[in-house]
Amino acid sequence: MDLSPLARERLxxxxxxxxxxxxxxxxxxxLDSLLSQYFKGELSSEDLWKRLKALKEQTxxxxxxxxxxxxxxxxxxxxxxxxxxxRRQAILAIETMKTEGKYSSLELxxxxxxxxxxKYAQSNEQTYHQLKGAVESQLQAVARQAMRRGMKIDMESSxxxxxxxxxxxxxxxSQHDIANEEMFNRYIAKLRELI
Length: 195
Fold this sequence. Notes:
By secondary structure, the chain is mainly alpha-helical. The chain has helices spanning 5-15, 19-39, 45-59, 62-73, 81-95, 103-148, 155-164, 167-194. It folds into 2 domains: 20-99, no CATH class; 102-195, no CATH class. Helix 2 (19-39) packs antiparallel against helix 3, helix 3 (45-59) packs across helix 4 (62-73) and helix 6 (103-148) crosses helix 7 (155-164).
């Protein structure tokens, strides 16, 4: 297929990557590799800090902001405490490398996120247990009737399924998630401003 001279010229421009773009791609790939090793537990916080410090000395301070930004991208309202702590540690450690760091401000926002995550989990658990109590009493009557007929019912699985499929649980989760996600997103936006 023959391309017009204009099309060939445009393709040539698209395909041409400047030296600066190549360096940015290489640096970003190296950073992704370091963070991947950190997330897998192959690097400790201290090892990550040392390797990023060396990378910063080669490429300049923007690498610290890029690393923190990538770490913030991985924060979730519903993530394990261990994963949250790992990211928090890294974000704060990287902040110490900056010439004009905002360590205490970042720490305050991360503390707010931690508090939000804890309240979110506690509220979910409390509501679940309240609904579970109501469902259990109903299912016990059904289970007694089933036992008279020679059938067995897995009460725990039945209770859990009934609670999670109840309109009350679905409504609670929907409203609860929306409100908490909004607040979580505000905190994430604040983190982004600070880094």
